[in-house]
Specification:
The complex is a heterodimer.
Chain A lengths: L1 E8 L6 H15 L3 E8 L7 H10 L4 E2 L2 E2 L2 E6 L10 E7 L19 H20 L2 E4 L2 H11 L4 E2 L18 E5 L8 H8 L7 E5 L5 H10 L6 E5 L4 H9 L2 E3 L9 H8 L4 E4 L15 E4 L3 H13 L1 H15 L4 H9 L1
Parallel strand pairs in A: 1-2, 1-5, 5-6, 6-7, 7-8, 9-10, 9-12, 10-11, 12-13, 13-14
Antiparallel strand pairs in A: 3-4
Chain B lengths: L4 E8 L6 H15 L3 E8 L7 H11 L4 E2 L2 E2 L2 E6 L10 E7 L19 H19 L3 E4 L2 H11 L4 E2 L18 E5 L8 H10 L5 E5 L5 H10 L6 E5 L3 H10 L2 E3 L9 H8 L4 E4 L15 E4 L3 H13 L1 H16 L3 H14 L11
Parallel strand pairs in B: 1-2, 1-5, 5-6, 6-7, 7-8, 9-10, 9-12, 10-11, 12-13, 13-14
Antiparallel strand pairs in B: 3-4
Helix pairs in contact in B: 5-9, 8-10, 9-10
The chains are: A alpha/beta, B alpha/beta.
Chain lengths: 342, 361
């Protein structure tokens, strides 16, 4: 089949969704499909949102160079506005600021009348577009619940292996816990750093990633006198990240209401337990407290206690991580593509 | 120089990959290599049915390319129709082509525009809209003089042909003026390889013709050579890799390239960068933008006799080949990515001082 995977991307910014789309295209090609991405630039500014949706609507991608395109896989707002007789949504996320983030500090929508109207308009248009689609799958249960709640659309989660899947391997249970995340407020890295101030075992924290909060977080660690126990590696991709997973004692991931998060599955595939929080969203679809990791309260002391348990007992880390790996290995690209194309 | 944040605007035809795509990627690398931050923005362009053409243009109009990730974009470079429909105060055009089916191809078998009132009206509207939007650009460049001529004729907009060096530019070098003439081309009828072969039936100099490249008429040409009893003087090498090509250029006496109405043609520049003269024909199009008869090569009538005479002159006189080639090298050496990058970025900063990336909403 000739398949277009539709994506919206902020120029000069790389993120997890982009990797997701690239992986899908690669995996479709490996299975003999002719797959290609269509990527339009995206700008999250409120007054540009409807124009951008309209730009996608302008595109009739049912043919290219006089040959039909068999299907379009839409991924995030506003890619499902494209015109095609066979649209499949594999939802990464909607425009979150207009949905579940509204009312939190992470949204730029206020309760003013224009903002409220815009939110309602986006939700109504999204719903209409979804009704054109052949089926709606989501990257996680969390995302499926949201789209059911806000758009009244029934959707089911379709999990996929993380980009690093092929490279991850089990290694020693070393003297550090790992964070892999963009350094943005929603990822709550500050919470993990503050937890380190309560950790009594000699466990270090290694933070992989970069972002707008880098300086602030480094200052925060220094202010807590944690400079020698918290390391920022900056952005890393591929093998060096796999190496860090492989040597970690465990992985900590405490975002606020994350959609999916590759980190959980990556952690499990490297045989590492995951420490997360009760409000982390996506990770909770996989992490079971005391079975393959720990689900803590979103408070420094609670995270610190979990880190200390692993610090005191690497054999526990190995046992929990092993249970996680069994779970993560059931998620395969063969399964994904079969369900996606139906 | 202030590093600029630049978007290169590209029209994507899903599942089709061609020369313009390579050009855009080379431009992005050239900009990055000179310290700028460059990214490519591609929007699919669907030209059928014809009603969708304006919708594709409208999509560019609706997208915001002035801002990315909270920081302003300093400059956008538009390439093909309809990328120049994007809105940006510093939009520079480096035109690859307009929607050719509505321009010079209309009325030929290469166009889906016919002489119905509806199609004629659509063409007129398209050209008029193009003209209006092209005028918004703060700098007008094209990839070749033929493209500039076309824009002047149809849109009344003057522009400068801004050539880019061929991909092998950094690797090509001179060498001995050997015993063969080189042709580098896809083997298609429009490239008129048969004309070059015929010329070698007339040459008296002890030179061979080596033809590098492959194409749909390779088999036909092989038979043609055999029928003319030229198998010991004309050789089809097929597709050769870059290393081999560089060496073939370096060791030849001259390059012969006499296609019919080529748009641009990197072969001429590759020959000059390898310090070889170029033999071409009066009706070869793009090659004539660089080759001057008797100065850096020969511009012949498109006949075997005329081409053979030029080959024989160079066959008899390697020193002549070297002196022509020296002047050709001067022409090609002026065509650099430095120049392309400088002209495009300069044009973008002319209207308004470009400062370090500004925060934007």
């Amino acid at each position: 089949m000739r398949i277009v995977v539709a994506e919206a991307c902020v120029p000069f910014v790389r993120d997890g969704a982009e990797l997701h789309v690239q992986s899908l295209v690669t995996q479709l090609r490996l299975r003999g499909h002719d797959a290609e991405t269509v990527t339009l630039p995206f700008n999250g500014r409120k007054d540009e949102l409807l124009d951008q949706a309209c730009a996608w609507r302008m595109l009739n991608i049912s043919t290219s160079n006089a040959r039909p395109i068999d299907a379009v896989v839409a991924t995030r707002f506003p890619t499902w506005f494209a015109r095609h007789p066979r649209k499949i949504v594999w939802l990464i996320h909607q425009h979150r600021a207009a949905y579940e983030l509204f009312g939190t500090p992470y949204s730029d929508f206020s309760d003013s009348e224009p903002d409220t109207r815009l939110r309602q308009r986006i939700a109504a248009l999204d719903s209409r577009m979804f009704s054109e689609c052949e089926r709606i799958l989501t990257n996680s249960r969390n995302t499926a619940k949201r789209v059911q709640h806000f758009n009244g659309v029934s959707a089911r989660p379709l999990y996929h292996p993380p980009p690093l899947a092929g490279r991850l391997r089990e290694g020693a249970y070393g003297d550090y816990v790992l964070v892999v995340a963009r350094l943005e407020p929603l990822k709550r890295i500050d919470l993990v750093i503050r937890a380190m101030a309560h950790v009594s075992s000699p466990v270090r924290l290694v933070i992989v990633g970069d972002g707008s909060q880098r300086m602030e977080l480094e200052r925060g660690a220094a202010a807590l006198d944690l400079g020698h126990r918290v390391t920022f590696t900056g952005s890393l991709w591929g093998e060096p990240v796999a190496d860090l997973y492989s040597g970690a004692l465990g992985v900590v991931y405490a975002p606020f209401d994350e959609d999916y998060g590759y980190v959980t599955l990556e952690s499990f595939l490297a045989g590492k337990p995951m420490i997360t929080t009760a409000d982390a969203g996506g990770p909770l679809e996989f992490v079971r407290d005391g079975i393959n990791g720990f689900v803590c309260e979103p408070a420094p002391a609670s995270l610190a206690a979990a880190i200390d348990r692993l610090g005191a007992d690497p054999a526990l880390a190995e046992r929990l991580g092993g249970a996680g790996r069994e779970l993560a290995q059931t998620i395969t690209w063969d399964g994904v593509i079969e369900q996606l194309l139906g | 120089m202030t590093p600029l944040r630049i978007l290169i605007l590209e029209a994507q035809v899903p599942f089709v990959h061609g020369g313009a795509e390579i050009l855009v990627r080379e431009l992005a690398s050239a900009l990055e290599a000179r310290g700028h931050h460059a990214q490519i923005v591609s929007v699919p362009f669907i030209d059928a049915p014809k009603d969708e053409i304006f919708a594709g243009a409208e999509a560019w109009r609706l997208l915001d390319v002035t801002c990315a990730g909270g920081r302003s974009i300093d400059l956008v470079i538009a390439t093909k129709f309809p990328t120049y429909f994007a809105r940006h105060p510093r939009k520079v055009l480096w035109l690859v082509h307009q929607h050719r089916a509505a321009y010079e191809l209309a009325g030929t078998r290469f166009s889906d525009f016919s002489h119905t009132p509806r199609d004629v009206a659509l063409r007129r509207r398209l050209i008029a809209t193009d003209t209006r939007v092209l005028r918004e650009c703060v700098g007008h460049f094209t990839i070749a003089r033929t493209v500039s001529d076309r824009m002047l004729k149809y849109n009344g907009i003057a522009s400068e042909a801004l050539y880019n060096p061929p991909k092998l530019a950094g690797r090509l070098h001179g060498g001995p003026y050997g015993d063969y003439v080189l042709t580098v081309t896809r083997l298609e009828h429009v490239k008129r390889v048969d004309l070059a072969i015929d010329a070698f039936q007339k040459t008296t100099a002890a030179l061979r013709l080596l033809i590098a490249g492959d194409g749909s008429i390779r088999h036909e040409l092989a038979e043609y050579i055999e029928r003319r009893g030229l198998t010991d003087r004309v050789m089809l090498l097929g597709r050769v890799d870059d290393d081999r090509l560089v060496e073939l250029y370096a060791g030849c006496r001259a390059v012969l390239f006499a296609p019919y109405q080529e748009d641009y043609g990197y072969v001429t520049l590759e020959a000059f960068l390898s310090r070889k003269p170029v033999i071409t024909a009066r009706d070869s199009g793009g090659t004539l933008e660089f080759v001057s008869d008797g100065v850096n090569g020969y511009v012949c009538d498109p006949t075997p006799d005329a081409l053979a005479a030029a080959v024989d002159r160079l066959g008899a006189d390697a020193a002549l080949a070297a002196s022509l080639a020296e002047r050709g090298h001067g022409v090609a050496a002026n065509i650099t990515w430095d120049n392309v990058v400088e002209r495009l970025t300069e044009a973008g900063s002319r209207t308004q001082r470009v400062r370090a990336a500004q925060p934007c909403g």
